[in-house]
Every structure is written in C-alpha cells, then in structure tokens.
C-alpha cells in the first residue's frame, strides 16, 4: 500500500519531463492521478503509463479551461487532494536567442575577452513577457484557486518554481520573475489556507534533464555542470521524490516552504 493510497491528484504539465515523473511517482504511491497537459498526445501517453488515471487537456493560462479541468477531475473521482502546478515553458525565440548569446559569450571567455552581451531584457516583447507570466504565474494561480474550491483538510498543493526564481537567471528575466512570483504566492496562500488544514509548498528545481533544456548549447551545459556541486544535472525522478515527500505523510509539518533540489548549485 502506497503512502498516499486512494488520494486524488492533479498534475499539470504531466505530458513530459518533471510532470510525467511526478504523475508516475504519485501513481506508484497509490494516488489516482489526472495528467493535465496542453498537449493531448503527451497527456494521453502519460495517462497510459499509470495504473489508474486519466488525461485532461487544458491550457493552464486560460482560467475557464482550468476551472473546467478541475471540475472534470472532481466529477470523475469525487474529490481532489493533491495539486501539482508544474506546467511550464522555456520562452520563445527571445529566450532561444539569449541562450545563443550566452553560449557565444562563454566561448569568448574561454579564448580571451568576452564582448557579446546578453541583451536579454531589452529583447523581451510584451507578448513574450505576458505569455511567460501567463503560463507560470497565472497558471499557478488559476490552478490553485480552482483546486481550493474543492479541497478539504489534509489536501496539499505543490507549486514548481526554479532556482531562477531564487537567484535570477540573466538570460531569462521573464521566467525568473514568474518563478519568483510563484514563490511569493506560495508563502501567502500557505498562510491563507493553513487554518483549513491545507498545506502549500514550492519546489525550486535546479537544472534537470528534460526537453525544456534541449535548446542548451554544449558550452552552456558544461559551464552549468561546473557550477553544480554534485557535477551533474538532476533527473525528473529526483524532483518527483521531493514532491512525494511534500504530499505524503512525512511532510505534514511543512507549509509555505521552498524546497530546492539543485545538486548544490544554490547553497544558502
Ligand atoms: P517539459 O519537459 O517541457 O514539460 C512541461 C510540460 O508542460 C510540457 O508537456 C508542456 O507541453 C506543458 N505545458 C506547457 N505550457 C502549458 C500550458 N499552458 N498548459 C498546460 N500544459 C503546458 O519541461 P520540464 O523541464 O519538465 O518543466 C516542468 C516544470 O519544471 C516547469 O514549470 C519548469 O519551469 C520547471 N523547471 C524545470 C527545470 C529544468 O531544468 N528542466 C528547472 C527548474 C524548473 P508542450 O510540450 O506542448 O509545451
């Protein structure tokens, strides 16, 4: 018998990477898992890997779609005990270009004086800014609000932030702002709903091997690996372990916290 046997969990962004690993771990711990993703193929593939579970298709940046998705889960399973707000994007062309300039700068540093500047902030359009905040910060709010309408004492929410929210990542200021916002939101909501017996925490992963990082040039990856105390990127399953701790019986005295499995990239 798993540690969260019979609980109902909704995991956003479950069609890939960390979300898929979280869905599979919560399933292995005995939960009924709804795998939500904007990508129907990804959601259905993950749901197909679960012992019991369902796929839910929604864009977390759209509050009506999120409300509908949460209602579908509650109508199907009769309750909602766990929400993991994990869906995320890396940004569009502006983020890819900033990554490219970061790679160029690192090459220059290795061979002498660097001249390329990142120019990340000045190249973010209104649209890219709002989409980044829309998926991450609005999405976390919409999911949390919809879930809280149905959650009862003992329920748990885990929001997925990033080390970029803790320290700021120069090449993706909009992503860093969204993730820092999620951490502040987590602390406020944890205080809000504690009297109802509901816990809310945040996980701020370091660099994890998922499709989100596919755009990373080898020189950028090597530079990051040098800065990670454990010398390697993490695995999605290592983030799923942290989620399992927070939502399970070992995490019952933890609320309003940010837990950062980052291999010692950030130590404070
Ligand atoms: P991933 O492999 O790209 O998975 C993210 C999933 O979220 C994808 O299936 C994606 O679908 C889905 N998604 C994107 N926008 C959505 C939306 N509007 N509504 C619903 N689903 C949406 O990325 P990951 O690395 O697992 O990232 C998961 C979370 O961890 C994100 O919040 C990310 O910021 C955070 N994180 C990741 C790292 C890392 O190094 N990987 C580090 C720190 C934090 P599409 O593929 O169709 O876009």
Automatic annotation (TrEMBL):
Residue ranges the record marks as coiled coil: none
EC number(s) per entry: 1.1.1.100
Domain of life: Bacteria
Top EC class of this enzyme: oxidoreductase
GO molecular function, one term: 3-oxoacyl-[acyl-carrier-protein] reductase (NADPH) activity
Entry-linked PROSITE patterns: ADH_SHORT (PS00061)
Pfam families on file: adh_short (PF00106)
Keywords: Oxidoreductase
InterPro entries hit by this protein: NAD(P)-bd_dom_sf, Sc_DH/Rdtase_CS, SDR_fam
A single GO BP: fatty acid biosynthetic process
Homology family: Belongs to the short-chain dehydrogenases/reductases (SDR) family.
Name this protein carries in UniProt: 3-oxoacyl-[acyl-carrier protein] reductase
Organism: Saccharothrix tamanrassetensis
Lineage, highest ranks first: Bacteria, Bacillati, Actinomycetota, Actinomycetes, Pseudonocardiales
């Amino acid at each position: 018998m798993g540690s969260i046997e019979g609980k109902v969990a909704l995991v956003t962004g479950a069609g890939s990477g960390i979300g898929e690993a979280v869905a599979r771990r919560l399933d292995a711990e005995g939960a009924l898992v709804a795998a939500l993703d904007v990508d129907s193929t990804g959601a259905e593939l993950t749901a197909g890997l679960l012992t019991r579970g369902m796929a839910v298709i929604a864009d977390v940046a759209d509050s009506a779609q999120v409300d509908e998705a949460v209602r579908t889960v509650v109508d199907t399973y009769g309750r909602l005990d766990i929400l993991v707000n994990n869906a995320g994007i890396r940004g569009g062309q502006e983020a890819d270009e900033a990554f490219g300039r970061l790679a160029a700068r690192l090459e220059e540093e290795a061979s002498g004086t660097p001249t390329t500047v990142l120019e990340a902030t000045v190249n973010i359009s209104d649209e890219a800014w709002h989409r980044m905040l829309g998926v991450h910060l609005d999405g976390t709010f919409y999911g949390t609000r919809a879930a809280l309408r149905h959650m009862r004492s003992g329920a748990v929410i885990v929001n997925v932030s990033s080390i970029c929210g803790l320290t700021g990542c120069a090449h993706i200021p909009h992503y860093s702002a969204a993730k820092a916002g999620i951490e502040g939101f987590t602390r406020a909501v944890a205080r809000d709903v504690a009297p109802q017996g509901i816990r809310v925490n945040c996980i701020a992963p370091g660099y994890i091997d998922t499709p989100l990082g596919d755009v990373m040039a080898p020189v950028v990856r090597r530079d990051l690996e040098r800065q990670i105390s454990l010398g390697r990127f993490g695995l999605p399953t290592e983030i799923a372990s942290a989620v399992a701790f927070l939502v399970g019986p070992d995490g019952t005295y933890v609320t309003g916290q940010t837990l950062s499995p980052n291999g010692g990239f950030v130590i404070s």
